[in-house]
Amino acid sequence: MRVDLFCESGERYGLGHLRRCENLFLHLKAIFPTIPLTPSFHSSFSLPPYPLEIVIIDSYITPKEFYESIECQILICLDDFFRIPYPKHATILSPTLGAKSHKNRYGGEGYVILNPLFLTPPKVPTQKGRILVNLGGSRQDRLLDILTSTLKGDIHIINPYYKSSKFPTYSSLAPSEICTLIDSSEIIITAGGGGLNEALSRGKKIIALLLADNQLSQLTHAHSLPSLLTIFSLKNLTCKLTHSLSLLYSLPTPSPKALGYRLDKLLYKLLLPLLSPSNALHFSLLSHTQKLEVLKLRNQKEVRENSLNPKIISTKEHFDFIASLTFSQFFWAFFEDERCCGEIVAVGSLQIEGERAKMGIYKNMKYKGVGEKILHSLYESAKKLSVSTIEIEVLRHNSKALHLYKKSRFSTKSQNEKSLIMEKNL
User: Fold this and answer.
1) What is the CATH number assigned to the segment(s) 276-425?
2) The whole model's pTM is what?
3) Tell me: the pLDDT tens digits for 106-149?
4) Which of 177, 377, 147 is nearest to 241 (CA)?
5) Cβ contacts of residue 15 below 8 Å, gap of 6+?
6) pLDDT band at residue 225, thresholds of 50, 70 and 90?
7) Measured between alpha carbons, how far is residue 344 from residues 306, 320, 374 in Å?
8) Residues of the chain with CATH 3.40.630.30
């Protein structure tokens, strides 16, 4: 499955948009580790000569016409301040502090896009007095000259273009190296973009500088956070910096700020239609009424008698189960109608474990002859998820199911007094 990512980057634009796209792709990979996702990064805004599947755009310069010309299955647009009206089928991500969510627009701290490394515990201790200057990937020579003439002590600078004879400077760092430098520093001097969010996620004292208009909203929201001082104007920067440093040293170290905690669930739901059978909805996408309909099917007498757990499931247990589903547990409600409306005819599931999947099926007992069709739909989804072997456990007395699976070329892998474990290679 191809993922095409469009963004500008470089000396003029910095690396913020590129890093956000890279990080968003890493989240997709982490959510669906078995799917062979192939990234293609584009710095020019012209359509490639092949069908598009998943498209991600993070740009302040792309014209509206480019968005409207895109035909793809999923379109994700990153935008900090709703620059243009986007196509109706697009999902808009505003991954900045203080941004609001509305309809197909998702914003705020829960959708901040961090490299997954920044969501893990620190691996190195903080060096008291160390200051890290990380202003992003654009050229900032004049500003960095002011900072290096003002700062003293254990100072480290990240910038792809700047060199200092006084302090260590770094460029082309891997995310793990940036994370280590942040973790080892007591104070971070950063701009109002991705570097600010990285420092917040690691629980650091911060001086944040407003370097571009698009950072104003995020910095305004961050202004009230503990142990974070914001400089909105670079006039008299030396005095402001000296005062801010003396104040920060007297403040306590803040706790790491939780960021991006809603992002993975959103991405999961966005990609589910590409992996789901055409006449099925994942449990997480069902309405409250449809979830109750699934529960009614599960508690049918004949379904319970042929289940490994024959007990009646309560409403609370059912909704708790749906809420507990992980990204590797795919439970679908199958509809008679291809538009996924009307009555639910069956439930099918795949629980992924590497290249294997445990399968389950139960149906609305008033429908006949749907089992084989559901099976083939599950096979197709399993292949999309890079599953090579399907396994199912069947009670010995469930003769109808045993006949269906044997007809579908499942073989018996093992058995006990009550059940058979059968498998099929795809």
Assistant:
1) 3.40.630.30
2) 0.90
3) 999 999 999 999 999 999 999 999 999 999 888 999 999 999 99
4) 147
5) 9, 136, 137, 138, 160
6) very high
7) 19, 20, 12
8) 276-425
When pLDDT is averaged across residues 331-359 and rounded to a whole number, the result is 91
Q: Which residue has the tokens 């093992």?
A: 414
pLDDT of 61 strictly over 80: yes
| Type of residue found at 38 | T
CATH 3.40.50.2000 domain span(s) along the chain: 118-250
Task: Determine what percent of the chain is predicted with pLDDT higher than 90.
Answer: 85
The bridge status of strand 411-415 relative to strand 228-231 is: unpaired
Tell me the torsion sign for CA atoms 150, 153, 158, 161. positive
Which residue from 116, 48, 386 is spatially nearest to 261, judged by alpha carbons? Answer: 116
31: phi then psi, degrees, rounded to nearest 5? -70, -40
- What are the CA-CA distances from residue 62 to residues 65, 308, 409 (Å)? 8, 55, 52
- Given CATH 3.40.50.2000, say whether it is the number of domain 118-250: yes
First vs last C-alpha separation in the chain: 19
Q: How far apart are CA 11 and CA 405, in angstroms?
A: 60
